[in-house]
Amino acid sequence: MDDDDEIVTMRPVPGHPDVMEIRISCPDATGLGCDIARTFLDFGLKELQGDVSTDGKWCFLIFQ
What we know:
17% of the residues lie in helices and 45% in strands. The chain is an alpha+beta fold and 64 residues long. The two termini are 24 Å apart. The mean pLDDT is 88.
């Protein structure tokens, strides 16, 4: 399976060894970005920034 085929990927951010980038590709739903961000917070993770892109059917989210 290639990186492009994976639904969730995690990788370190270059130049910031303590920061991970999480990329999620999944079917879109209303409030999905909020739900995922809230789940990260519930598990004690800090979010530095986030980006959401959607075409109405699929959603691509990036969190750092």
